[in-house]
């Protein structure tokens, strides 16, 4: 009976989006302005696509993460309003509006860029940055990979085999786990490493890209199997791994991300050990935390031939010391007297210092409306990359991506592997 009811619900349709929408749009189609120009924003509160009269809204406006105007209970007689924003130096200006309708809140925002191509990061680089990471990788590579491979028949297809794999990371007993997908047909193939966003979760592997003729390794970073029940990861997230991104920030050698970065590079070692790899193309890609890891791997391993980073987190923490938008996890945001050792320690794990060292072609993509990773940090990282690079902006996106963005991302990866013309 329950199955029949669920089937009936599916047949009837799905819940998608809201009938009430807060639209905030700029008067420049590319959302960009020169410093000193005025950005004109239009706010419309719509119900069924038409203006909602007499709606009450709250709004805040100003530089991203540092709004200097806040208003509450403003009634929009005809459901719309205009707003003007301006910046005198490179950065991003955001207008965020929340409408209150029938006891529910609906939010829209728009973020305008002011000469973003001139943004530069504030993060400093330690003198021993290269030596630190050379030593970390050398120490890790003193230990054999000792790979363990388990076929997952229930996940395999006619053309792709799927495996859970693990191998030694930085010391015996410390392992990296992941899902390996590769074509069933014997041959030599290009490869792709997928690195994860923040959190604790299981992984399914990238069967589709593998079906196009590639080896794909999707890894977890926490040293635990990636095929357990979701509830197990939730329990771990709430306990042992709660706030893992803040562990030992003031001690670079003990920072949580040290084994994460070495493990990501060791994943390239593992790919290179596979007899099916063609010995030429091997790339790395990820979003958010995975964007940072993509920058790190591409910088530290010169075997990487292409990198794609999407709304890369963990970049330009020190911008907060200038009271400007900084990258997630915003270590020093609104901290009056940050610990000097934490500031210095964070530099070894700031994507900015890895981005400076990338030499392979890259594809970089992010949105202006991202409230987790500010567009200023993503743009400043892009600006300092000296390797061949492509910037693909999807201004309206937040900390997510649209289908078109995903399709472009995947197409670029396939082209780098010479799997698409």
Topology:
Elements lengths: L1 H11 L7 E7 L5 E2 L4 E10 L2 E2 L3 E9 L5 E8 L3 E7 L4 E11 L2 E11 L14 H12 L7 E4 L8 E12 L2 E10 L5 E6 L12 H5 L3 E5 L10 H9 L17 H18 L3 E11 L1 H12 L5 E5 L29 H7 L4 H5 L6 E5 L8 H10 L4 E5 L9 H14 L5
Parallel strand pairs: 2-9, 13-14, 13-15, 15-16, 16-17, 17-18
Antiparallel strand pairs: 1-3, 3-4, 3-7, 5-6, 5-8, 8-9, 10-11, 11-12, 12-14
Helix pairs in contact: 5-6
Structure, briefly:
By secondary structure, this protein is of the alpha/beta class. It has helices at residues 2-12, 129-140, 207-211, 230-238, 256-273, 289-300, 340-346, 351-355, 375-384, 403-416; strands spanning 20-26, 32-33, 38-47, 50-51, 55-63, 69-76, 80-86, 91-101, 104-114, 148-151, 160-171, 174-183, 189-194, 215-219, 277-287, 306-310, 362-366, 389-393.
Walk me through this protein's architecture.
Helices cover about 25% and strands about 30% of the residues. It contains ten helices and 18 strands. It has helices at about 1-10, 130-140, 205-210, 230-240, 255-275, 290-300, 340-345, 350-355, 375-385, 405-415; strands at about 20-25, 30-35, 40-45, 50, 55-65, 70-75, 80-85, 90-100, 105-115, 150, 160-170, 175-185, 190-195, 215-220, 275-285, 305-310, 360-365, 390-395. A nine-stranded mixed beta sheet has the order 10-11-12-14-13-15-16-17-18, sandwiched between helices. A five-stranded mixed beta sheet has the order 2-9-8-5-6, with no helix packed on it. α5 (about 255-275) crosses α6. The protein is globular, with a radius of gyration of 23 Å. The mean pLDDT is about 95.
